[in-house]
Design brief:
Blueprint lengths: L1 H34 L2 H5 L5 H13 L8 H9 L4 H15 L1 H8 L9 H23 L5 H10 L4 H24 L5 H7 L2
Helix pairs in contact: 1-6, 3-4, 3-5, 4-9, 5-9, 6-8, 7-8, 7-9
Length: 194
């Protein structure tokens, strides 16, 4: 009986350590992004596709902190292959979004149960994949909540990554093509140029 209680206690401790580690990792990444000098972030574009990938991972790993990832995709769309930019930025963005997913998966993330969050959870319960796809495609500040909701609902990580990548890929493709001048989307150009 005592061995069984000790085993349960050890599992609880291990579970707590995993949750704490995931939360601390998310906080550390967010703080790093928030305080990194702007010139170091924009210098990543000199590294081509690898720079786009890395920049996308970093800028999408922030939770609720805006980062200028779309600006890099737009500007490099004119200098590099827009399709490869979309692939690398989409993949990097999807991987970066794991920070929100892990915050939710590790245990109930610390967020207010606001109306938008409640709606996202309900949408995720009914149409998880479609919700991720649409929210990843539309430029909006709520994708972090979508990732948190997917994590809380214990959606398989591969499914979250797949649909996040598809949505992010098509968003990045439109932005890269607009940057290349191949696709005329005035609001994107107005939004991303000074």
């Amino acid at each position: 009986m005592k061995n069984n209680q000790k085993e349960i206690s050890n599992k609880k401790i291990f579970s707590f350590i995993k949750r704490l580690g995931a939360i601390l990792a998310v906080v550390a990444i967010s703080l790093y992004i928030f305080f990194i000098p702007e010139d170091q972030l924009t210098g990543l574009e000199n590294f081509g596709y690898a720079g786009v990938f890395l920049f996308s991972v970093i800028t999408n790993a922030t939770i609720f902190l805006p980062a200028p990832g779309l600006l890099i995709v737009f500007s490099l769309g004119a200098r590099l292959n827009p399709i490869l930019i979309a692939v690398t930025a989409g993949l990097g963005s999807a991987i970066g979004e794991l920070s929100g997913y892990l915050a939710g998966y590790s245990g109930r993330a610390i967020i207010d149960k606001k109306n938008i969050y409640t709606k996202l959870v309900n949408w995720m319960k009914k149409n998880g994949e479609l919700t991720i796809l649409v929210m990843a495609f539309i430029p909006n500040p709520f994708f972090d909540l979508t990732g948190i909701a997917a994590g809380i609902l214990k959606m398989p990580v591969w499914k979250f990554l797949f649909w996040a990548f598809i949505g992010k890929f098509f968003k990045m493709l439109l932005i890269a093509l607009a940057g290349a001048g191949t696709l005329e989307i005035p609001w994107i150009k107005d939004l991303l140029t000074v």
